[in-house]
Amino acid sequence: MIPRLRLEHVTKRYPGVIANDDVSLEVLPGEILAVLGENGAGKSTLMKVIYGAVRPDAGELAVDGQAVRIDNPAHARRLGIAMVFQHFALFDTLTVAENVALALPRGERIAAVAARLRAVAGRYGLEVEPGRHVHELSMGERQRVEILRALLTEPRLLILDEPTSVLTPQAVEILFGTLRRLAAEGVSVVFISHKLDEIRRLATRCVVMRAGRVVASVDPRAETEAGLARLMIGADPPAIARHLTPPGEVVLEVDALAGGEGAGLHGVSFTVRRAQILGIAGISGNGQAQLMAALSGEVPTRPHTVRLFGEPVGALGPAARRARGLRYIPEERLGHGAVPEMSLTANALLTGDGLHRAGFVRHDAAVGYAQSVIGRYAVKARGAQSLAASLSGGNLQKFIVGREIDSAPRVLLVNQPTWGVDVGAATAIRNALVALREAGCAIVVVSEELDELFELSDELRVMARGQLSPAVGAHDITVDELGRWMAGLWPGGPALGRPERAAELDA
Amino acid sequence: MGGKVGRVSALLPLVLVPRAQPSRLAAWGSPLLAIALTLAAGFVLFAALGQDPWHALNVFLVQPLATVRGWGEIGIKMTPLVLAAVGLAICFRANVWNIGAEGQLIVGAITGGAVALMAGPGDSRVFLVGVIVAAAAGGAAWAAIVALLRDRFNASEILVSLMLVYVAQLLLAYMVNGPLKDPLGFGFPQSKLFESGARLPIILPGTRLHLGAVLAGLAAVGGWVLLARMFLGFQLKVAGVAPLAARYGGYSSRRLLWFALLLSGALAGVAGGVEAAGPVGQLTPSISPGYGFAAIIVAFVGRLHPLGVIPAAFVMALFYIGGELAQSRLGLPAALTGVYQGLLLFFLLACDTLILYRVQWRGLGVREA
């Protein structure tokens, strides 16, 4: 069989790093190929080479046996290659149909695009309303738009970069059903992931990348998860520490928190204790952002809505709450948790309240703090003067987590602690959180990764449509049950209404 | 980033390759390269105008600097440019787009001038402190209108500050035709000349260079300390490039907005005040030949750096004075100054590419695979 795509000796260098080093691989028609590797292993660069978004320094590509030089993504699309990016490339102010139309050859009317969109969406079980604006959509829905946009170009090779990170377990099953169906129709699927269980469930072949090179090509169904992890990291993965210290007194209380931007929150009340990790599950866009904004002080509330160590702090801003021991790690790293255009030293200063005195920056102290975080959390950076934007996502996340943890918080809020972070770094971050809990810190973790929440949390709650479920012990609920709660189906939870949620439940 | 590589390569054996980090060398070298290219283009331009290029460049760029007096004139032009541009650089770094420095400068001239007119014949130079403070207060008050409207009603500071320029110009016209008009001035729309106690002293004998130049230097150094060493300056920079990160850090965007506008307004006001109490010596309807607008260009050529505005203001001042000389001695059009300023900006923007990209030689005859 002629491979749909063949790569031979592809090499791509960036200043200071070789992203792809002599990579050769083949994808057959109808094959689901997984590309496994840690963040920074070169997976995304390789996919961008295939999609024409990056030109390789050396090497050759062949599509259906024909040697090609892919100049740009439009060229790739003409060759039948489509890509769904990890970071969504959608315009917030445009509707779903308008966004999709942008990726299609010119001249197609929006109404016609919308009709095709509905047809394809129905066929693959990816319900989305073409007339809605992208800014109204949850992360899961946005990804569906990305996938639909790719499918509308009728690709023969579909590349997906970390597609499951924003989906419920039920939605992941729908996606996998869609991908298997595409493969059965002869479409080649390249699936980039670092989630071992998903690769074993979905892929028929798995290429493992490490430090820019392909180190193995295996049948993932014949491998154990531990075996795959070893191939990916090159060593045994570290284990997560256990909880030993029993939770103490209540330190953070939230009472009838409501409102906020967008659809807003409805009567959110909960408490967190000393040495306790409260995990909040749920699909993004269900009020987690508003909750974190209210807890961190970025959007103040009435004083008594948020109480910290018994003191009403709802009206205080982030700096005043930091002074009381509350720290926050936001979901978005670039531009929120860190300033991309500034050095790590400056980013240490961002929340480093001890790094300035009498109005002046203590530059040496800030450099020292940044260097200590880089060293303790094994952040791969050239030094404290490196720009935040020059770090990979995982390394910047390690820096931000380290920056907040090293200031010895008594209450820590974390939104998506390991989003887009490789296994090794994710384990390091989770271990740091558990160690902090053991030291007596109260931690609120908002995450879409259920494995992570089960691993970390003492107590779990679910956020759906601005409401918070009752608390349940992390050992007292199954993944399936939690998945149903994520659709709002806990006793007394927000009723079902949206069709896509129903579709997820039927799966 | 990678997708932007090498579009030139089809034409030239050169490609632009993204740098891992912005180059500091290029950031500082770019203005120098731009000036060199401007001179080269100016050489061609003079030749095309039928002049001996060497002679013309000499008149345009060297003659103004041939005498101490010439340096003094350059310094006089630089003073209001630097004062206003330092404030604007800080404002722009904070992503606050005050483009009405001209208006703040005019109001500063009015309030500073009003105080200067109170000085009697025997008053000492201590009076000048009052003049400067009044000028700063006037400029700050004018900018405060912008801050208030932006803060309370989210009005665009660009439009509000620009429109207030015209209000300020009319206010000045009213003042010199009404309350501040010289009663013995034969009806001319101007104030009486300030008494010597309210005039800025000359600091360089044989020139007209006045104490305002020292104030401008202090403002530049102070602005640098603020941005490079102080936490408030850091907050301004964070708010400028990443407003969400500033909110995350707990930096009040309202406080920073007010600070940036009041500071730049006060500095522009001082620029107006020293212009009135310096070379002009009275209030006239044309107290500023557009210094407040020129300062916007100076701020950008000076890389929005408080010390960078000094050489930028020097080049701008040189083009002003060289243009005047070229007009009188060579009979060239007055538009020459504008052409030179435009060329400089054009080359600067092009050279700035080298901050984020480096040029790589691909070799002749080699085409990409």
The string of secondary-structure elements of chain B, in order, is: EHHHHHHHHHHHHHHE
- SS content category of chain B: mainly alpha
The unreliable regions of chain B are 1-9, 365-369
Oligomer: heterodimer
* CATH architecture label of the largest domain in chain A: 3-Layer(aba) Sandwich
In terms of DSSP E residues, the strand content of chain B is: under 5%
Which topology of chain B does CATH recognise?
A: ABC transporter involved in vitamin B12 uptake, BtuC
Count of structural domains of chain B: 1
Q: How many alpha or pi helices of chain B?
A: 14
Judging by the overall fold, what is the CATH architecture of chain B? Orthogonal Bundle
| CATH topology category name of the largest domain in chain A | Rossmann fold
What's the main sheet of chain B like?
2 strands, antiparallel
The helix fraction of chain B, in percent, is: 55-70%
**Of all protein chain pairs, which has the greatest interface, and how many residues does each chain bring to it?**
A-B, 43 and 29 residues
As residue ranges, the low-confidence spans of chain A are 496-507
Number of helices of chain A: 17
Characterise the protein shown here.
The complex is a heterodimer of chains A (507) and B (369). Chain A has 3 domains: 5-233, Rossmann fold (3-Layer(aba) Sandwich); 242-325 and 409-507, Rossmann fold, CATH 3.40.50.300; 333-406, no CATH class. Helices cover 34% and strands 24% of the residues of chain A. Chain A has 17 helices and 23 strands. Chain A has helices spanning 43-50, 73-78, 96-103, 110-124, 139-152, 169-184, 196-202, 225-233, 288-296, 318-323, 344-350, 363-376, 393-405, 423-438, 450-456, 479-486, 499-506, and strands spanning 5-14, 17-27, 32-36, 58-63, 66-68, 81-84, 157-161, 188-193, 205-210, 213-218, 250-259, 265-273, 276-281, 306-308, 311-312, 326-329, 356-357, 360-361, 411-415, 442-446, 459-464, 467-468, 472-473. In chain A, the strands form 5 sheets. In chain A, strands 13, 16, 19, 20, 21, 22 and 23 form a 7-stranded mixed β-sheet that branches. In chain A, a hairpin with a 2-residue loop joins strand 9 and strand 10 (213-218). In chain A, helix 3 (96-103) crosses helix 4, helix 4 crosses helix 5 (139-152) and helix 11 (344-350) crosses helix 12 (363-376). In chain B, helix 12 (309-330) packs antiparallel against helix 13. Chain B has a single domain, classed as ABC transporter involved in vitamin B12 uptake, BtuC (Orthogonal Bundle), CATH 1.10.3470. In chain B, strands 1-2 form a two-stranded antiparallel ribbon. With 369 residues, chain B is mainly alpha-helical. Chain B has helices at 24-48, 53-62, 68-93, 101-118, 127-153, 157-177, 212-229, 231-241, 243-249, 253-280, 291-301, 309-330, 335-351, 353-356, and strands at 14-18, 357-361. The interface between A and B is large, with 43 and 29 residues.
